[in-house]
Structures
1.
Amino acid sequence: MENSRVLLELDAMSMFFGGVQAVRNMSFTIMENELAGIIGPNGAGKTTVFNVISSVYSPTSGCIWFREQDITLLMAYQVNRLGIARTFQNLRLFGRSSALENVMTAMQNRYRYSFRETLRGHLSPSYRPDPAYHYSFVESLLHLGRWDGVEKHIRAKSMELLERVGLADRMFQAAGTLPYGMQRRLEIARALALDPKLLLLDEPAAGMNPEEVFALNDLITGIHREFKLTTLVIEHHMDVIMEICPHIICMNFGAKIAEGTPEEIQNDPEVLNAYLGGEEAENA
Amino acid sequence: MKKSLWASSAFVVLGLILIFMPLSGYEEGIVALLCINCIAAMGVSLLTGFTGIFSLGHAAYMALGAYTAAIMTVRYGVHWFPAIVAGGIIAVLIAWLIGMPTLRLTGDYYAIASIGLGEAIRLVLENWQSFTRGARGFPGIDSYTSRTVAVGFFTVLGIGMFNLIYSRLGRELKASRDDRVAASLMGFHTPSSRMKALLISAFYCGISGALLGGYMNFIQPSMFDMMKSTELTAVVVFGGLGSMSGTLLGSAIVTSVMEYFRDISQYRMLIYGCLLVVIMVLRPEGLLGSREIWSFIPIQTLRSVFRPMPRPDARPKERG
C-alpha cells in the first residue's frame, strides 16, 4: 500500500498573468516513488506549473495538495520545508560561494517531523529543524557547543552528495565559474541536500551535449532509485523523458493534452499533431 | 574548525598588541578611533557586503547608540559598560521597528528608504530639545573610551562577527544576497534573514556610536548625518563587498589617511576622494574583492617550500 499513496495532486489549477493564460485547468496526480515527466513545446506552461507547485506564484484558481495537505496558499519557504525541492531552468546557484558551500547552505535547512505527523501521513505547520543539522545563534556566535560537530556533519554529508553527482574535485570552486553541465548537477545536489519528498527538475538537460544528456539520464534514474525519491522532470528533449519516465504528462498551450506511458504518448494522435508534428522531427 | 580558531586568535593577538604597545597619547587616540570605525564598518559590511542591502542611513544607529550611552551616563549616572551595551540594544530595537515595514523593499528601494529614515532619526534628535539638548550638542560625557576599552570591544565584536560569517547564519545571508528566489526555495524566509542582518548591523553601529561619544566627550546630531552614513558604506565598498577582513583593512586605511593629513584640515577630503576614485578605478571590486585576507596567503607554495626533501629511496604514494 505504501507505494500507491498520492503524493502530489493538482486539482483544476489555472494560472493567468493578466490576459495570458499560462496554465489552464491543469489536473494530475503523482504517486509516491514515481518518476514522472512533463513534456511540451516551448511556451506550453511547463515551468509555470513548477513555479506554482513550489509556490513561487500562487495559482489564479484551483488547488494543490501535497501529502494530503493543501499547499495552495503557502509561501515558497514553507512549501520547501514540507519537502518539495526543485532546480531551475535558468540556473539559480549562489554564484559567489563555492560548490560545497552551496550544498551546505541547503543542507543546514533539513527539517524533522514529529512521530505523530509521520503517523498521520501529513505534516502540520510545526516544523522543527533536525538537531543533527542545526545549532543556535549563540553557538554560531561563539563557535561552541554543537557548532563544531554539526558543521563537520553538514560538510561530510555535502561532500558525499557532491561525490554522488561527480563534482568532488571541484567542490572549492566558486559555483558561478563552473562549466554549465556541472552547474546543473550542482543544482541537483543542492536540491537533494534538503532531503525532499518530491524533487522537481526543470529542464535538467537544457544546453547539454548528447553525452552529457546520457550521463544525466543515469544520474536522474540513479537518484530516483537510491533516495526513493518521487521525481518530476520537465523536458522538451523527447529522448530524455521517453527513456526514463514511465509516466508522462504532455502539455500544449497551457493545457494537458495527454497522459500515460511513453508508448501511449507516442501513439496519441493529439500529441503527434501538436508536438511531434507527424515526422518525429523534434527528436534532437 | 581550524579556520575560525585562527581568526579568533589573530584577533586576540592583534588586540593584545594594540593594548600593550607603548604609544603617545595622540597615537592612543588614533587606535581608539580606528577600533570605533572598524566596529561600525563591520556592522555595515554584514548588511551591505554579505546580505546585499545598501544602506545610506546607518549613522542614525550610531547616533542612537551615542545618545543612549551619553544620556544614561551623564543624566542617570549609569556605569559606562551597561550604558554602551544599552546603546547597542536601543539601536537594535529601533532597527527592528524600522525594518518591519521597509525590509520588504530590496536593492535600490531600501537604499532610498534608508536615507529618509536616517535623516528622520537625526532630526528627531535635533529637535527633541528637552531630552537631547538638540543641535547644541550633548557635552560633558565621561571619557570612558580609553584605548583598552575600544580595543576590547573591537576584539570581542570582531571575533563574534567572523564566527557568525562562518556559520549557518553567514551562509543564509549569502544565499539571500546571491539569489532571493533560490534562497526561499532552500527553506529560508528571506525577509527575516534580512532582518537578522539589519539587527546585528544596528547593534554594531550602536556600540560604535556609544564608544564614539565617550571618545569625543561631546556629541551632536550633525556628527551623524548623511555624510557619515555614506562614509560607512563607502568604506565597505572600498574594502570589497563580501569580505570582512577587506572591510577592516579599508576602514583602517581610510581612518589613518584621514588622520595623517589632519594638518591640512579641509583639503584632506580631497585626498579621501582621490583615494576612493583610484581604488574604484584600479580595483572595481574593492581592495580584497569578495575574498578574505587569508585566501591570499599562498598556502600551496608555502607548503612546497617548507616540505622536507623526500629521501631518494622513498616512493611517491599515489600514482597516475
2.
Amino acid sequence: MIEIKDLHKSYQMGSNSLHVLKGLNFSIDEGELVAIMGSSGSGKSTLLNILGMLDEADTGEYTLDGVPIKNLNETKAAKYRNKFLGFVFQSFNLINYKTAMENVALPLYYQRVARKEREEKALKYLQQVGLKEWATHLPSELSGGQKQRVAIARAMAAEPKVLLADEPTGALDSKTSYEVMDLIQKINDQGNTILVVTHEEDIAHMCKRIVHLKDGVIVEDKKVEQVRASQYV
Amino acid sequence: MFSRDNWKEIFETIQKNKLRTFLSGFTVALGILIFVVLFGFGNGLINTFDDFFGDDATNVFYVFTGRTTMPYKGYKANRTIEFDNSDLEDIKKNFPLFLEYITPRITRQDTVKYKNESNTYPIWGVGPAHQFSEMNIMMKGRYLNVEDIKNKTKNAVVGRLVEKDLFGAQNALGKYIDVGGSMFKVIGVFQDDGGDREERNIVIPYTTQQLIEKNTDKIDAMVIGFKPEIGYAGAMGFEKSLDEFIRSKKYISPQDQNGIFIRNVADQLKQNQQFARVLQIIVAFVAFGTIIAGIIGISNIMVFVVKERTKELGIRKALGATPKTVIGTILLESVFITTISGFAGMLIGIAILSSMGEKLEDFFITNPYIDIRMAVIATIVLIIFGAIAGYVPARRAARIKPIVALRDE
C-alpha cells in the first residue's frame, strides 16, 4: 500500500541545513496497523507529513497504492489527499462552527458527493464511533475524547486507503486514549490501513508493528503482539 | 463554482460567523450610505443654487435707481434718481443693436380680495416683455399685451398660487378681483420655476398703475433683455455703455457708486456657475474619499477574516480543498456580503435623501438626490475592490501549507 525508498528531507535553518530524514526505506501492506515511534526531533512528524502529502521529500521515491507521488502541485496534492488519505490530528482540528455531522461530511463535500448522501454517510460513520446522538452538537459541546472520535469519523468518511494519525492520543488522558485506540483497532479490524505516530510505548504496543525512528533513520522495525485496548476500557 | 451546494456552504458559513459577516457588511453599507448621502447633499446644494439664480432669463439687466452721493454738474449730492417713461423710449432708440426687449417694473404691495377671500400680494406694474425676463409660463389665458399698455386696461395676470389662494378650485379666468380698491379682470394665470414666492405675484399694465397713482409717468426700475447672440463680451460692453448713457442723461457722476445700479444676471450667473462647479468638485472629491475609505476598510477586514480563518482553511485543505476552492469560497463569501450590504446601504441612503425633500432648505440643501446610475456604479466599484482586496489574502491563505496552518499555537 505504501512504499518509500531512500527518502531524504532537510530543512534550511538560517545558514545551517538540518538533515531530518536520512534515507528511509520501508513498506506498509494493506490492513496493517503501524506505529511510528521516536522522541521529539527524530523525524517522525516529518515522515508523516510527507506520507500525508502535506510536505514533499527532497529525494527518494514514494508510492501510494501503486501511484507514484511526486512533483505534486497544490491542486493535485489536494485531490490525492482527498482520495487516498484520512487525517487524525493531536489537536482534533474540527471546524468549530460546524456540527459534528457537518465536520464529518466535509471531506465528502470536496469529493462533490450530493448533500443528502453526505449526511447519510456522515451519520453512518458517527454511529460507528458511537456518537450518532451527538450529530447536531458543536465541537465546543463535546469532550476531548468525543472530539477525537468525530475527527476519526471524519477521516473515515472519505473512505481513504490509509488513515494517518499524528499523536491521536497526545491531548487525551489515558482512559480516553485507550477508548480512542480501541476505536482505531476496530477500524483496523475491518481491514483499513492505519499509521499512528506516537511517542507513548503503551499506545505503540496497541499496534501490530512498530517502526522506531531515531535521528532520521529507522533503528528498529518489528512486528509486535497487539495489546487490545478494549481490556482497559 | 456556482452550484447550489456551494451556495449552501457559503450561507452556512455566513450565518455561523455573524460578527465577521456584520463587520464586513457594516463597513461596506456605511461606506456606500455616506457616499450616497454626501453626494445627494452636494446635489441639493447645487439645486439651491439653481433655485436662487436659475428661474429668470439670463440675458437680462435690471436697472435700479438710488440716491447720489456726489455732487455733479451743478447738482447736489443726495439727490433721488427716478426713471420715467421717456427713459424707456430713449434706451430703445439708442441701443437697437443690443436690445431685445425692455419693460419697466413698478413694484407695489396691496390687499387683493375676491368674494370673502383676501390676501396681500406683490403687485407689479410691467410691460408685456416682463413675461420673458421672468420666464413665466402661461397655464391659461394670456399675458399682458401692447393693447393693455396703450389702453391702460384693468387687466391682471395672476400667479398660480394666487388663483389657488383666492379661488380655491374655481377658475379665476374672467373673474374680477379687487386690487387696493380697483377692480381688475383676471386674464391669465402663470406658473414659474422660481418657487412659491414667484407664483404669488400679480402683474398689471404699468400704465394702469401709473394712472392709479395720479397719472404719473415714474417707474421704479427697468428690466432690459439683450440679444443672446451678442455673447458675454457683448453683454459686458452693453452694460458699460448703458451705464454711461443713463449717467449722462440723469447727471450722475461716473465715479458715483450709488445713483443707479445695474444688475447683470449674465455676469452673476457666470460667477454662480463657477461656484457651483467648484462645489461639485469638492463634493466629488469627498465622495471619492469616502469610497477609498470604504475600500481600505473592506481590505482590512478581509485581511483579518483570512487571518482568522487560517486554521480552518488549513483543515479544509487537509481534507481535500484545492487552492481554487479555497479562494473561490472566500471570494464568493465576501462578494455576497458586500453586494447585499452595499445595495442595502445604497437603498437606505437613497431613502434618507428622498425623505429629506425640502426639510434642509434652511441649510441651503434642496431636494437632495443622487443619480441612481451613479450610486449603482459606486456600489459596484466598492464590491469589485472588496473582491480584489479579498483575493490577495485569500491567495496567500490558499498557498499556506496545511501543516503550517495546522501547527498548534
